[in-house]
Amino acid sequence: MQKIGRQMGSNLAGVYQDKEGRRFYVKSLESPAHARNEIIAAKLYQLAGAPTLTYVSAKELNQIATEFVELDKKHISRLSDSERRQARRWLGVHAWTANWDAAGFDGDNQGVVDGVVTTLDVGGALEFRAQGDPKGKAFGACVRELDTLRKNVDNPHAVRLFADMSPVEINEAIAVVTRIPDASIRRVVAENGGGIALAEKMIARKADMAKRMT
C-alpha cells in the first residue's frame, strides 16, 4: 500500500491506499497489547450496537487499521440537536468500556458518517488511556464513568455532550449494555485475544450499571 495522507491523532499513523484504490487509516501503537485492547473495545461497541469505524486486519501486531471514511462533521460543537441525541444514546457503552476519551480531548472523537454519529477512536477504552498508559485499578468493577463523563470538569467536551441527559435518557443508555448476554461478552473477548479476567470484569461492570437504573 502507498501512504497518501498524514496522521490525524496523537499516535503515529497515516492514510494508505491499496492497488484497488481502497483507503485505510493505519496507526501504530506501543505494543500488540495496546492494539488488541482497541480491537476488543471496538468489538464490544459493535456488540452493543454503537457505531464505530470499520476495523480490518493490519500488517503488524501493534497496528490498528480502519477503513477510511469522509466525515460529514467532526466535532461535538457542530452536532445538531438530533445528532446530540444520537450520541447520548451510547453513554452507557462509553461508560461500560471506560472510554474516558469518548468525546475526545478536543471534542473531535465523535463524528458524523452518512448521517450516523460515530465514535471515531476507542483507543482510550478498557485497559489503556488514550495516550497509552495503563489505567490499572482505575479500570475496575465499579462504573464511575456514568458520572465522570457527565460531570468531570477536566473532561469538558464529554460534559458538554452528556451533562444535561435526563434520567430517562440515562436509563435507556444503561439498558443498551444490560441487555447484552454474558455469553456474548465472553465470546467477543475470547475471539479477539482477551483473557477470562477481562470478560468477567466486563460482566461485573454490566451488573454494576444495572444497579444504577431507576
Mind explaining what this structure looks like?
The chain is α+β, with helices and mostly antiparallel strands and 214 residues long. The protein is 38% helix and 15% strand. The protein has 8 helices and 8 strands. It has helices at 32-48, 81-88, 91-96, 145-151, 156-162, 167-178, 182-191, 196-210; strands at residues 2-5, 13-17, 23-28, 55-56, 63-67, 73-74, 110-113, 116-119. The strands form 2 sheets. The chain has a 5-stranded antiparallel sheet. A 3-stranded antiparallel sheet has the order 6-7-8, with helices on one face. A hairpin with a 5-residue loop joins strand 2 (13-17) and strand 3 (23-28). Helix 1 (32-48) packs antiparallel against helix 7 (182-191), helix 6 (167-178) packs antiparallel against helix 8 and helix 7 (182-191) packs antiparallel against helix 8. The chain is globular, with a radius of gyration of 17 Å. The mean pLDDT is 92.
Outline of this structure?
This protein is of the alpha+beta class and 214 residues long. The chain contains 8 helices and 8 strands, in the order βββαβββααββααααα. Helices cover 38% and strands 15% of the residues.
